[in-house]
Specification:
Length: 360
């Protein structure tokens, strides 16, 4: 089913797996183009449920609910990368799923992902497979300290990561990472962190948004700025890397590639997100087309837009209780406030964001 990608008319229904803020913003973008959306998510508090035409609140393993969902939609896409492989396969047997769920097998596992990127001749941090604590000691000898131990699966926003510094006991680090298969990565003394949000359409063309510079706080994205402060040559190389990855996957939709920029201008790929991405939120107000619309266009079989940027743009995440300050942004010229409608405020939870177009 996945090979056949229909061109959807505006009254078609797009199915979205996952009901977080990314799903919510996809729904809003789809609605602007006349589509209806049906969101499937297990959590009754899903932010996307507030704005969508139809919802299914069920577990990803509920095959009856998945079957009904599949028969109600014209295409399925997803807003998060940890969709269980069986769920994606079940749906793909009934309705086109884009991007192809086979891609999830690569991006859900840091080791497979790193091998994939390295196999394309694209540089990454030095890394080693750590299936057991015994292997960790040898790998630390080889890669050196500082290094970062990361769980192979289910890591995001720094979760499942343990720093290996001078004096860190490998056995303790292994336990802290949950005693599960990991990779060890050399710590990268990067100059900047950048990302490229790219879209690939049915016809195989790729459109990249401008390279974005990202600042993290406590491992969580805090601020994105665009254009990133890097040379035109490095920016072109960053876009080229994203394009190679999108083409190799035969991707349809939006993906993000996070990279480390070294002082000498070398770019190392850190991570691929097979979905719209927080570092692309600036496109909502800072570009002629948003990453969300671009994704909807791609999965609907529509031509991609050529994104034009409106100036220098900054995006600030409102994390945890910072959301209580949203009012202070409301009257700032060039500023737009986005709130995700989440009721429970928790430390580290992304509650909203602010975009600012700063001028040329
Ligand atoms: P990740 O979950 O892999 O995206 O990591 C979250 C953040 O941790 C990154 O955006 C970096 O700021 C930091 N980080 C991850 N891996 C490394 C590394 N090998 N060297 C230096 N910093 C890293």
């Amino acid at each position: 089913m996945t090979a056949v990608s229909p061109v959807l008319d505006p009254e078609a229904t797009i199915g979205i797996l996952g009901g977080g803020q990314l799903g919510r913003m996809l729904v809003l973008a789809a609605a602007r183009l006349g589509f209806k959306c049906h969101v499937f998510a297990p959590n009754p508090d899903s932010p996307a449920f507030d704005v969508v035409h139809r919802v299914t609140c069920a577990d990803y393993t509920d095959t009856e609910a998945l079957d009904r969902f599949a028969s109600d939609v014209d295409v399925v896409t997803y807003e998060f990368e940890n969709v269980p492989a069986e769920t994606a396969a079940f749906l793909a047997a009934r309705v086109p799923v884009l991007p192809d769920p086979a891609i999830l097998a690569t991006t859900q596992d840091r080791l497979v992902e790193k091998n994939f990127v390295a196999g394309l001749g694209i540089p990454t941090a030095a890394f080693a497979d750590i299936p057991s604590p015994g292997k960790l000691k040898a790998a630390i000898e080889h890669i050196g300290r500082p290094a970062v131990l990361k769980t192979r699966r289910f890591g995001y926003d720094g979760k499942g990561q343990v720093a290996i510094k001078n004096g860190t006991d490998p056995d303790a680090a292994w336990r802290e990472a949950g005693g599960q298969p990991c990779i060890l990565e050399a710590f990268v003394p990067f100059e900047r962190e950048v990302s490229v949000v790219a879209a690939r359409g049915h016809a195989g063309g790729v459109e990249c948004f401008d390279v974005t510079e990202n600042e993290h706080r406590d491992h969580i994205l805090k601020t994105s700025r665009v254009p990133a402060a890097l040379s035109e040559r490095d920016a072109a190389q960053a876009r080229r890397i994203a394009e190679i990855i999108a083409q190799k996957f035969g991707y349809v939709g939006v993906l993000a590639v996070e990279m480390f920029l070294l002082r000498e201008g070398e770019l190392l790929v850190n991570e691929i997100a097979p979905r719209v991405h927080n570092s692309g939120h600036w496109t909502l107000d800072g570009a002629s087309v948003s990453q969300f619309e671009q994704h909807i266009r791609a999965v609907a079989g529509w031509p991609l837009a050529k994104p034009l940027r409106h100036g220098r743009v900054e995006m600030i995440n409102l994390i945890g209780r910072e959301v209580e300050d949203y009012r202070r942004y409301l009257n700032v010229p060039g500023t737009a406030v986005h709130l995700y409608g989440k009721t429970a405020v928790r430390p580290g939870r992304k509650m909203g964001h602010v975009t600012r177009v700063i001028g040329e």
